[in-house]
Amino acid sequence: MSPRTTAQFDEIRQRSRQRIMAAALELFGTRGYASTSINQIAKAAEVSKGLMYNYFESKQDLLQQIVLTNMEEGEQWWQEILALDVSPFEKIEKVTKKSLQVVQEDEHHWRLLTSLMFQPHVLEGMEAIFEQKVTTLQPQATALFEALGVPFPEKEALLYSAALDGMFLQYLSLGAHYPIQEIADHLLDRYRKYHHQLPD
Length: 200
Prior knowledge:
2 domains; mainly alpha
């Protein structure tokens, strides 16, 4: 058998890292962050405790990497949509649809992530990361609503974000009983009229 290449080793490391993060999120979401130990995570991920420390400095670092990874994935498709050569309304429509798709494709994952937000002190130490993301993304969202011609675009961007968050929380709580697609369409109707008013 020929020795593994650097690319193969990198792939193995990435798979191990993802398995550890998935096991940790499952335990953090079901048992609680404070009640979950590194030993429990290692056992669930089927790796040694020593190997875990090759990837993450501590339980807090592991949690931060889980949250940061999800934020970066969301930011990536957000930037891809913003870069499209389509109207402001179409960008908002695509962001809305993509947001729904991401949550609906892995409800369990997002239910676990949401549960972290309601655990006291779990996200302490991440304030700087959140502030950095908000500093980058909020002006972009404001500019998008400004281009659409919505009054008070900064407030509208915040309202839109809050509406999505509330929609997803209701959906994750109520499941199929919550008409998420109908509510998303109703939200888009709020902006469709501005789209029709824009000059060609």
